[in-house]
Write a structure and sequence with these properties.
Length: 329
């Protein structure tokens, strides 16, 4: 039986704590080892990631390491990797994500059977409970129109026709969505497998409160440029991104309204509206699985954090709409 060659691209930056297990999970796949290629791009790491990768390269003939002399960002690392990949199927796997043993076999089977299929995704589960108030984890229980690269497979031919690059102008805010929609616009389809394809670790984020606030403005404005390039995506992001629920809309608009009320009438009324906004944030976070987080985070810090991020994100989308002359809202 002839198997498709599968290349797995792993962009790595300061990932010495996870990248060995990540690459190992790919090598442990139930897909024929001779049909697997792992291209790991060290994006100018400052820890011993490169040394770990060189060990893996020496020990496994399927592993090939490419090094950036300086940190160029996630988009350029993925870009380098997919250009180096030689497989019929090109997968991208995050450095802190671990492939299910059946992942490569399943995606290769689907792409081998359906010649016009360009993208295959599947369920991504987290490896454990969320124990930190500010953490990094990616879960994908269902299909997402943003096509995240935490664990995704592309047909190589589709990449070639759509342009084999991740556009760094979008950086972490849409480069994965951009390449997927270029593939779709080139005439290829997508499929979401209702099976677990990978597992993402749960990691503590230092200074997460401040970091997320800083990332909330102006970076999300780039979504306006994304929609300008791919108008067809508007109908899908419109429902899932900003207006996902009436409670979210109300919560987002309530905070700037409280400032306006405070300025126009009195600070007492403004503070009252802020309290309502925070209380609504507590309600919205009630179903989140922060099972071991202290109560002060659950009922004060996290609702305030979420509220500030969403307000700044909303302002960023307004800014992007004006800057790129592309309506997001």
């Amino acid at each position: 039986m002839e198997y498709l060659k599968v290349s797995v691209v792993v962009p790595a930056y300061n990932g010495s704590g996870t990248v060995r297990e990540c690459v190992g999970s790919v090598l442990a796949s139930d897909y024929p080892p001779d049909s697997i290629e792992v291209v790991v791009v060290d994006d100018g790491s400052r820890d011993d990631t490169y040394a770990v990768l060189r060990e893996l390269e020496a020990a496994h003939k399927q592993v090939r390491v490419v090094k950036h002399e300086r940190n160029l960002g996630a988009a350029r690392a993925r870009d380098t990797g997919i250009k180096q990949a030689t497989g019929d199927v090109v997968c991208v796997l995050s450095q802190d994500t671990f492939a299910d043993a059946s992942w490569l076999r399943r995606v290769a089977d689907r792409l081998g059977r359906e010649p016009r299929l360009g993208i295959v995704q599947g369920i991504v589960k987290r490896t454990g409970e969320i124990e930190f108030p500010f953490h990094h984890v990616t879960e994908r229980p269902a299909f997402s129109w943003s096509f995240p690269t935490v664990a995704i497979a592309y047909r190589a031919e589709a990449l070639d026709r759509a342009g084999r690059y991740f556009d760094p102008v979008f950086s972490e805010y849409g480069d994965d969505t951009d390449i997927a929609w270029r593939i779709i616009e080139a005439g290829y389809g997508w499929e979401f497998l209702d099976v677990i394809t990978a597992y993402h670790g749960v990691y503590r984020v230092k200074n997460g409160f401040v970091r997320d606030i800083r990332r909330s403005f102006p970076a999300p404005a780039i979504y306006a440029l994304l929609i300008r390039r791919h108008p067809g995506i508007r109908q899908f992001l419109y429902q899932g991104f900003l207006w996902s629920s009436p409670a979210r809309v109300f919560n987002t608009l309530l905070f700037p309204a409280s400032v306006a009320v405070a300025v126009a009438t009195s600070w007492t009324y403004g503070i009252g509206l802020v309290a309502v906004a925070i209380a609504l944030g507590v309600y919205r976070l009630a179903d989140r699985e922060h099972v071991r987080i202290p109560m002060r985070y659950r009922y004060v810090v996290l609702p305030v954090h979420r509220l500030l991020c969403e307000v700044l994100g909303f302002a960023s989308l307004v800014y992007g709409t004006i800057r790129y002359r592309s309506l997001v809202l």
